[in-house]
């Protein structure tokens, strides 16, 4: 088996590690490409290709995250991860951890961690790396990695919702939600919203301030009552889709171009949070991106 074959076999794992550390599809893809270049240039073959590549992609991702932190502090409005429709890495034994760790809510919690804490948490809690492997990957002692893992788990546990929905119940509720959306059934949508529901959008200063943030069932329902009829009138299409391991949707214009995405967080049988990504820079990996300003003009919003 050639180096290229070994690398392609492990590419899904490398991307999945990098995405969870970075929260960016484009940056994760760049980190994986840099890992390949370093592997290709290595004069000797490593004893364990998986350990070598995982170490390289982790260290590259940590370096990228440190510089990205500065940009995110200067970001206009709320910052969300780039939406991921399909995780290329699959492991039946860790399917729950993989799905949970890629959710918008989990990735936003990971933003609270230092780059080292984030990398250790991802390698240990998501991919079940040994502390010896993690120590090699991040360049810290095993004892230090244990401490980093403890701190990371504490931060992550403190921020999680208390009553998360069963996956099947979550999908069923999301199906009803998007059926009501496509039917323009505002009253039906209203019954599925938590009393303190929040809809918040990441436009990065490159999208209109429509639905940037509304709080409370009445306010969110009122905002949807304005947006939904106009969007559908303009030929918009709603495609329910797994977004970051949970229920969501891709919204397209009449030409099939991506307008924005939604990720739903469902807690205690109701939609608790709707996170919309409108920044066109964060949607390009999903295909051709619409001019959202033109879509709004056509919809008369």
Automatic annotation (TrEMBL):
* Span of domain RNA polymerase sigma factor 70 region 4 type: 105-156
Q: Name one Pfam family in it.
A: Sigma70_r2
Cite the entry's keywords alphabetically.
Sigma factor, Transcription, Transcription regulation
Limits of the RNA polymerase sigma-70 region domain: 7-69
Has UniProt tagged this entry with the keyword Transcription regulation? Answer: yes
What InterPro entries does the record tag this protein with? ECF_Sigma-70_Domain (IPR052704), NTF2-like_dom_sf (IPR032710), RNA_pol_sigma-70_dom (IPR014284), RNA_pol_sigma-70_ECF (IPR014303), RNA_pol_sigma70_r2 (IPR007627), RNA_pol_sigma70_r4_t2 (IPR013249), RNA_pol_sigma_r2 (IPR013325), RNA_pol_sigma_r3/r4-like (IPR013324)
User: What subunit structure does UniProt give?
Assistant: Interacts transiently with the RNA polymerase catalytic core formed by RpoA, RpoB, RpoC and RpoZ (2 alpha, 1 beta, 1 beta' and 1 omega subunit) to form the RNA polymerase holoenzyme that can initiate transcription.
The text of the family note is:
Belongs to the sigma-70 factor family. ECF subfamily.
State the name under which the record lists this protein. Answer: RNA polymerase sigma-70 factor
Annotated source species: Nonomuraea longicatena
